[in-house]
Amino acid sequence: MAFVLIAFCGCVHNPIWNGYGPWQSLPSDKTPFSQTVDDDRFADEGQQALETLKSHRETHGFPAITAAIAIDGAIVWTGAAGWADLDTKAPATRDTVLRIGSTSKAVTATALARLVDSGEMSLDAPLSDYSNEWPNKAWNDLTPRQLASHTAGIPGYENNGDRFGQVITLSGCRHYESVAESLAIFDGSDLIYEPGTAFAYSSFDVNLLGAAMASSQAQPFLSVLDRLVFDPLGLVASGSESDGNDWPELAQFYQKDKDQLRTWKPFDLSQRIPGGGLVSTSADLVRIGSSWMDPAFISTQTRETMWTPQVLQNGEVNEQSYAIGWRYYPDAKWPGDDSRALPFAHHGGISKGAMSWLVVYPDYQMSIAININTRIENYSDFNSLEGKILVLFLERIEQLQEE
Q1: Tens-place pLDDT, residues 126-173
Q2: Which neighbouring-strand residues pair with 158?
Q3: Domains detected in the chain
């Protein structure tokens, strides 16, 4: 236990351990808002979506909220309301960069899909194919499929048997120069079940996957994302807070208690980049979502494979309908109409002072993303906005198809 206390004391004296800011209320000024309609055919729906977004922010007291919609591979609308920074009163815009938490897993899966398409990685090859230097020998036989579907037996934050890692995970006071280095947070923990026999959602799964991807390319993980996802899609506002970029549009992040907010204490997310440490914009996220419907970017076969909910060894689909890097619901229905199918893939995320939501509707070639710069107790009070916006644009798409 002594080494844990020493590590903790080291964190206390680290400059990053500065605590939260003082509590404050939302400004009494008129709330700033903006929208961009990139396709005039959706101008009316965009205006309705903006009003819905503004109302949703006000109802729940978010400092800022942003949203974006892409259809047929192109952004058709973005909206933003509120303040990216309460102290400077900087308004949120379509360019506001936010922490996306576990939505990072879908971004990592996008790069994985491209590596599978190129034949540079196999979903079912053991990790020993990509490195023979894993710090925990129990990892050697795990596969990318198991890691990306959370069926590998890797523990989560709550049952990590690595005591040192538990302290670092909670404090966020240590910086890691690489994803491989960050594996030290859980490399002393045993597997919690035999791989393939159960499901346990964990960001550590995807951190290990990210290290395998980096090893397969002999490149840093973020360079893999740049080369396979960000650069080819033309994304300039996605990456990591600790990747050396200036991020001038990065939002301030807040803890919320009723109608009071305070800045989140500094937290180094380099410990969890592939599974929960990326930043992005709503606009960039819908571009990533749309890329899954472009067979020139990700093959149809790979998309279908990675959007198939994974079956455990007992023959049952895992409890979250989790596929490979995404949750996928093949039997979902239209809002309010159980006679009409509306399958979708999604991933949400919760980070330090932020929430994120990305959904892809392949039958309508549509992707929707929303993000906020605070955390609230009930996630559905945040992501319920997406369903309200969805209906507006679904109906318009059908009208256009009939014309």
Answers
A1: 999 999 999 999 999 999 999 999 999 999 999 999 998 899 899 998
A2: none
A3: 2-121+219-402 (3.40.710.10)
Nearest to 229 by CA among 283, 287, 268: 287
**Which one has a higher pLDDT value, 23 or 18?**
23
- SS3 of 130, please? coil
Instruction: Answer whether 97's CB lies under 8 Å from 280's CB.
Output: yes
- Taking only the tens place, the pLDDT of each residue in 63-122 is 999 999 999 999 999 999 999 999 999 999 999 999 999 999 999 999 999 999 999 999
Q: Which residues lie below 8 Å from residue 381, measured CB to CB, with a gap of 6+?
A: 60
Mean of the pLDDT values across residues 220-238?
97
**Residues 162, 156: Cα–Cα separation, whole Å:** 11
In whole angstroms, give the CA distance from residue 401 to residue 117.
32
Token couple for 352: 């330090």
Q: Is the pTM of this model over 0.90?
A: yes
pLDDT band at 246 (very low <50, low <70, confident <90, very high): confident
pLDDT score for 16: 45
State the chain's mean pLDDT as an integer.
94
Task: Give the largest Cα separation in the chain, rounded.
Answer: 72
**Other C-beta atoms within 10 Å of 294: how many?**
15
3-class SS shares of the chain: helix, strand, coil, % to 5: 40, 20, 40
Residue 156: C-alpha distances to residues 111, 123, 181, 203, 354 (Å) = 23, 21, 18, 7, 20
Give the position of tokens 């592939």. Answer: 274
Question: By the 8 A CB rule, do 257 and 26 touch?
Answer: no
Q: Which among 143, 155, 158 has a CA at the least distance from the CA of 193?
A: 155
Which ranges of 232-378 does DSSP label H, i.e. alpha helix?
A: 273-276, 282-291, 300-306
For residues 230 and 239, the answer to whether their CB atoms sit within 8 Å is yes
Tokens 């992040």 — which residue? 253
Burial class (CB in 10 A: 0-12, 13-18, 19+), 399: exposed
Give the tokens for residue 313: 């060894």
